[in-house]
TrEMBL record:
One Pfam family from the record: Ribosomal_L28
Keyword Ribosomal protein: yes
Species, as recorded: Bradyrhizobium canariense
Record carries keyword Ribosomal protein: yes
Gene Ontology BP annotations: translation
Protein name, per record: Large ribosomal subunit protein bL28
Highest taxon above the source species: Bacteria
Length: 103
């Protein structure tokens, strides 16, 4: 299983462990990934994904899994999340374009 978030594509980063004597040794900073069950209201079922804790906050901020996936760019999502996005778009229909104010 890869260490990559399925919603935000966060992955491992590389850096240094710096000792007291300032010796630098390569190390990896791994994302904080957790298995989470989200509820998709459009699909009417639960969805299990392996996401970062940062992604959980983003999903809550956007009002749930469905609005988050509809907003997310396809290049960032994992194949499973992209499949979910397409299924939600099929159920909900096309997303309306934001209206411009006439000034």
């Amino acid at each position: 299983m890869s260490r990559r978030c399925e919603l935000t594509a966060k992955g491992p980063q590389v850096g240094h462990t710096v000792s007291h004597s300032n010796i630098k040794t390569k190390r990896r900073f791994l994302p904080n990934l957790v298995n989470v069950t989200f509820i998709s209201e459009a699909l009417g079922r639960n969805v299990r994904l392996r996401v970062s804790t940062n992604a959980i906050k983003s999903v809550d901020h956007n009002g749930g899994l469905d609005p988050f996936l509809l907003k997310a760019k396809a290049a960032v999502l994992s194949p499973r999340a992209l499949e979910l996005k397409r299924a939600i778009q099929k159920k909900v229909g096309p997303t309306p374009a934001p209206e411009k104010k006439a000034s």
